[in-house]
Specification:
Helix content of chain A: 25-40%
CATH topology of the largest domain in chain A: Alpha/beta knot
Strand content of chain A: 15-25%
Number of helices of chain A: 9
Order of helices and strands of chain A: HHEHEHEHEEHEHEHEEEH
CATH class of the largest domain in chain A: Alpha Beta
Shape of chain A: elongated
Number of strands of chain A: 10
Distance between the termini of chain A: 52 Å
Largest interface: A-B, 42 and 42 residues
Radius of gyration of chain A: 20 Å
CATH architecture of the largest domain in chain A: 3-Layer(aba) Sandwich
Strand order of the largest sheet of chain A: 7-6-5-9-8-10
CATH superfamily of the largest domain in chain A: SPOUT methyltransferase, trefoil knot domain
Largest sheet of chain A: 6 strands, parallel
Oligomer: homodimer
């Protein structure tokens, strides 16, 4: 049985203000819970568990991986329905401590990195993190105006990939200006018109800037982009205006990786 | 000012049962409304408008494209908030008559066609329709167990591309069995293991089967698939289990089209 205070705390974590205040975020589902519990036993684990809420059945089946280092609450499905952010609640929910990730410029060396300029939909950000994981892109740099990594919808859409991809938030203008003037890392951006991504030369090291869902890449960032990439549409009369940013990210990552495989 | 009956009707269209009963679905937003109104003037237009609900400002600006063939209701933003399915309501909402689309086997000849096996999330289906439009894929065949085209979330995620791509619902077992045994059209499917899509031969005519978000392609359909395609992950130790289906669709469509461009 959950206390009113617990329910209030968990529900409040829908909002960034309360996630920041309590330094906690929510993870739901058996698969991610399993991965987190395995990872929590690891010395280098990024995330620490604050508490776990699960059905009696789940607890029975997973007793071995529960370490005793954090409180476990056995709750009913009615309780889970009250605290879940999903339309169909799962058997387990965890509160996880937010850990500050420290950026190191060396992370960019020899690697592909996604740079997210004001992607506002948490589902889009989450699926971008998932595709980055698929293609072995270890770091994502987001503008402060992008969706929050710890929004329950972002976390859900990553399907566990937030455990493997580091996501940093920073002022992109300063960050890109710095990369542009002090490093030789190529900076790519996706635009509606630019070099055909299918035939353009693509390096195995670089920053790839993806823009806002409706406005694209901010004007102030454009001077720092070396190569404008575009995904050609198949010639049709009534070509759509744009692609979904998470689908564009998938196509762009696919093209960069195809060259190296 | 909207009547209670109007509000009740519009809100009920969230559910397929009532969309089918009233033969109506909802479209929101200025861009799609504009396209629909232009299309409605066209003799070959697929969709007929039932009614339109908009702010006084929108009506003033768009008087020229309002044909007088359907009722227009000037409503307040408070009214729009009551009937909208979006978290941020737009200035205009339309009710559109559902039109039965008649499938013609000739539609498959010489073209790429997506075949959707139980994609359940309306947002995923909508973005798949959007990517099909981008790559000039004119037809999508869905299993009866897939998300509904006319779900407000599907329509919203298409960003207007539902006007350009035909979406049919049918029993996929019978459909694929028929294509397999009576035509020479190649049938591709996406799997977690299969031929590397980057190096495999891909035709400019074919059916491309995409499977359910968690279960993939149904077992009963597998005998009809000529070529198993897979999207290779970049070699990482903790490779994720799968890709988001809408992102996989984007990568697959991109690969098919890249060869022909």
């Amino acid at each position: 049985m959950l206390s009113k205070a617990q329910i209030k705390l968990i529900r409040s974590l829908k909002h960034k203000k309360f996630r920041d205040k309590h330094n906690l975020f929510v993870v739901e589902g058996e698969k991610v819970a399993g991965e987190l519990l395995l990872d929590a036993g690891n010395e280098n684990s990024i995330y620490a568990v604050h508490s776990l809420y699960a059905s009696s059945g789940w607890i029975r089946q997973n007793r071995e991986i529960l370490s005793g280092k954090f409180p476990v609450f056995e709750i009913t499905m009615e309780d889970l329905e009250q605290i879940s952010f999903l339309s169909t609640p799962r058997n387990v929910m965890m509160l996880i401590k937010i850990r500050e990730m420290i950026f190191n410029p060396g992370f960019l060396q020899g690697k592909l990195t996604l740079v997210i300029d004001t992607v506002q939909d948490p589902g889009n950000l989450g699926t971008i993190i998932r595709i980055a994981h698929w293609y072995g892109i270890p770091n994502i740099i987001c503008s402060m105006t992008s969706a929050d990594l710890y929004n329950p919808k972002t976390i859900q859409a990553t399907m566990g990939s937030f455990l493997s991809v580091r996501v940093f938030y920073t002022d992109l203008y300063g960050f890109l200006k710095d990369c542009y003037s002090t490093t030789s890392i190529p900076i790519y951006g996706t635009f509606l018109s630019g070099s055909n991504i299918y035939t353009c030369e693509l390096a195995s090291e670089g920053l790839i800037v993806l823009g806002n869902e409706s406005k694209g890449i901010s004007e102030e960032l454009i001077p720092f982009i070396h190569t404008w990439l575009s995904i050609p549409a198949f010639p049709v009369q009534d070509k759509p205006d744009s692609l979904n940013v998470a689908q564009a990210a998938a196509i762009v990552c696919s093209e960069f990786r195809r060259r190296g495989l």
